[in-house]
Design brief:
Oligomer: single chain
CATH superfamily of the largest domain: Cupredoxins -  blue copper proteins
Strand content: 15-25%
Strand order of the largest sheet: 3-2-1-5-8
Shape: elongated
CATH topology of the largest domain: Immunoglobulin-like
Number of domains: 2
Number of strands: 12
Helix content: 25-40%
């Protein structure tokens, strides 16, 4: 029953809409309002210009016989005055419209830059890699620092400061339901503020072309009530669970005696690799390979056996695993909740 429920929740989460129109927080709502304002105003200007361009087509054609070639018409002083006045008015209106657009843009930019005070906020460090997200929750108490990957949990109603950087090329962190884009640049720290005003699961995406698997570099933001968020944090601090069956114990031995430990860490075991995602609570995540596949046993088996077929160019190494060792390894990894 538990597996069935998890499968339903996972399928529901993976079908969630990634949309800047469906604003789930105050920052995204401000961006949506600015976009709506631009769309309405510029759409109205477009219609007015098209209407003015079509007006001459409705006038009756006077015919060439009424305009002899030898007769030269000079515009009257009154006509010139009217034309000059119309051009002046159009110029003034254009300047006012542009000024209004600048004021609106700057105002929204200030409102989404972040809160004036940092009370009750949390800080999360996100590092872009080809092609996955390293997530680290900062805390003054080292024992309460949480490290995960490709999934960001945040409490509803609390501002979250994202401190972004990159380990290789320029990436761009974008969760359209919650905030605009922010580039993650190697050797630099950029900041971005998120806030979710309602619970839900919101898909994020790298929005800067970063290589072959750019399209397969997704991230899920899980916004949940404060009590659930604190429970999740407490669980993430705990070390990995010990194997509860002979197969899981065998799988742990396979993991620790293979090349997996060179890249991945599992707290509570000798595995302390820092190249790939931390796997301490791997089975609690919704997806594999940064949103490429749902996290289930079948996909996990295929991912371990031949990651290059699933995500060509990925830096996930193909580790040779004997056929009789594959199922115990899968059982062990799926127990890491």
């Amino acid at each position: 029953m538990r597996c069935t429920t998890l499968a339903i929740l996972t399928a529901s989460a993976l079908s969630a809409q990634q949309s800047a129109v469906d604003a789930a927080g105050s920052y995204a709502a401000a961006i949506r309002s600015l976009g709506t304002f631009f769309l309405i105003l510029l759409g109205l200007i477009f219609l007015i210009v098209i209407a003015l361009a079509l007006i001459p087509l409705t006038r009756r054609h006077r015919g060439i016989e009424q305009e002899p070639l030898e007769q030269t018409h000079q515009p009257s002083h009154g006509t010139e005055t009217r034309l000059g006045t119309m051009v002046g008015i159009a110029t003034a209106v254009t300047i006012l419209i542009l000024f209004g657009l600048v004021v609106a843009s700057v105002s929204v930019g200030k409102s989404i830059a972040g809160p004036s005070t940092h009370a009750n906020s949390i800080a999360v460090e996100i590092t872009g890699n080809q092609w996955w997200w390293y997530v680290r929750y900062a805390n003054l108490d080292p024992s309460r620092i949480v490290v995960t990957a490709n999934e960001l949990h945040i409490p509803v109603g609390r501002p979250v400061m994202i401190r972004g950087s990159s380990n290789d090329v320029i990436h761009s962190f974008w969760v359209p339901n919650l905030q605009g884009k922010r580039d993650l640049i190697p050797s630099r720290i950029t900041t971005l503020w998120l806030q979710a005003d309602r619970p839900g699961r919101y898909r994020g995406q790298c929005a800067e072309f970063c290589g072959l698997q750019h399209a397969h570099m997704a991230l899920w933001v899980v916004a949940e009530p404060a009590v659930q968020f604190e429970s999740w944090m407490t669980h993430q601090i705990e070390p990995s669970v010990a194997p509860s069956s002979p197969d899981e114990q065998r799988g742990k031995e396979v993991f620790l005696n293979s090349g997996c430990v060179l890249c991945h860490a599992i707290q509570g075991t000798p595995a302390n690799g820092q190249v790939g995602p931390d796997l301490t609570h791997f089975a609690s995540r919704m997806t594999l390979a940064a949103g490429t596949l749902p996290n289930n046993k079948g996909n996990l088996s295929g991912w371990i056996a031949d990651p290059q077929t699933i995500k060509p160019g990925t830096k996930m190494a193909t580790v040779p695993v004997k056929s009789e060792d594959m199922q115990p390894l899968i059982d062990y990894l799926e127990s890491l909740r």
